[in-house]
Amino acid sequence: MSTNDTSNDSVVTSYALASARTVNAGGVTYAYRELGPKGGIPVVFFVHLGATLDNWDPRIVDAIAQTRHVITFDNRGVGASTGIVPDSVEAMADDAYTFIKALGFDTIDIFSFSLGGFIAQDFVVKHPELVRKLVLTGTGPRGGKDIDKVVAVTWYDVVRATLTRRDPKEFLFFHRTATGKPAARAFVNRLKERTIDRDQEISIKGFRTQLKAIQKYGRSAPSDLSRLTQPTLIANGDSDRMVPSVLSEDLHRRIEGSELIIYPDSGHGGIFQFHEKFAPVVAEFLGA
Q1: Which residues in the chain belong to E strands, given as ranges?
Q2: What is the CATH number of the domain that holds 38?
Q3: CA distance 58 to 188
Q4: Given pLDDT bands bounded at 50, 70 and 90, which one contains residue 206?
Q5: H or E, element range at 58
Q6: Which InterPro entries match (predicted)?
Q7: Region 99-116: what's the mean pLDDT?
Q8: In this structure, are residues 278 and 271 in contact, taking their beta carbons and an 8 Å threshold?
Q9: Is residue 1 scored above 60 in pLDDT?
Q10: Can you tell me the distance from the alpha carbon of 5 to that of 21, in angstroms, rounded to the nearest whole number?
């Protein structure tokens, strides 16, 4: 992976072609990708359970990268980032802070999904001065009802996927319906569009550790989200089995002035199923 500067290169706005880079901080080598025009406030993407750099929907990343500097990164111990996967969401948020400061940023916007949304909330509660705008998708608040049940739902769907030789995300993120199944297949195919510099998958041990961290988060005392003053966009499907959709409404109530979008007939991956509607909305929100 390269660490050289590309500020004079032509601007890449396709995630399939995004530069693969590394930065060393706190004894960890963090793997990241960047695209879009440099300068201004970057949009940093906080990724979901078990996910690597290869798990972001290019239709959403590319829409934001048309006008914004976008950065995606592997959490510690995941993909091409070194170190050991933390067993708490707070520690993951601390790692995100270490990574962002290592890149020299004083202000960022955050786009987060699922576990990434848990991490983003802990991050902004601890470092409110660093965050200008916040996007929370498929996620819920610390101590939210039934978040600790993610573990059982996840293993159940991993087994279902294994038995049918499908990607677990097809079960975890989408309904097994006439609309959900083709949306799932299309999403999984979009994740394969990048053919160069593919990332390494998370280890089983790392995956189990992340699940343990999610369980702890679900059983913890709530954070005080009433203190958040950042413009916040919250989105989900109406039937999320992983992080129940009611938790998106809970976040909306707790974060004053936040916007809420709930997509119909969709689950955890509602934003991916409805990417054609969601991508321009989130790009406009972050660009305003």
Answers
A1: 19-25, 28-35, 43-46, 70-73, 108-113, 131-137, 232-237, 259-263
A2: 3.40.50.1820
A3: 11
A4: very high
A5: helix 58-65
A6: AB_hydrolase, AB_hydrolase_1, AB_hydrolase_fold
A7: 98
A8: yes
A9: no
A10: 10
Count CB atoms within 10 A of the CB of residue 129: 8
Give Cα separations from 228 to 95, 120, 126, 218, 234 (angstroms): 21, 12, 11, 20, 14
Q: Is the alpha carbon torsion for 234, 239, 243, 246 positive or negative?
A: positive
Judge whether 3 lies within some domain: no
pLDDT surpassing 70 at residue 33: yes
Nearest to 268 by CA among 127, 138, 102: 138
Split into its structural domains, the chain has a count of: 1
Mean pLDDT of 224-233: 97
Which residues lie across from 121 on neighbouring strands? none
Q: 4 lies in a domain? A: no
In this predicted structure, the answer to whether residue 7 has a pLDDT above a threshold of 50 is no
* CA 178/CA 180 separation, integer angstroms: 6
Q: What is the pLDDT of residue 2?
A: 38
Check whether 5 has a pLDDT greater than 50: no
pTM value? 0.95
7 domain residue, yes or no:
no
Give the residue numbers spanning the domain of 123: 15-287
CB atoms within 10 A of CB 253: 12
Closest by CA to 70, choosing from 29, 104, 111, 98, is: 111
Task: Report residue 14: phi and psi, to 5°.
Answer: -110, 125
Give me the torsion for CA of 61, 64, 66, 70, rounded to 10°.
-70
Distance set, CA 237 to CA 58, 60, 94, 241, 278 (Å): 19, 16, 29, 10, 11
Pairing of strands 70-73, 108-113: unpaired
Residue-level pLDDT at 9:
55
Q: Is residue 74 part of a domain?
A: yes
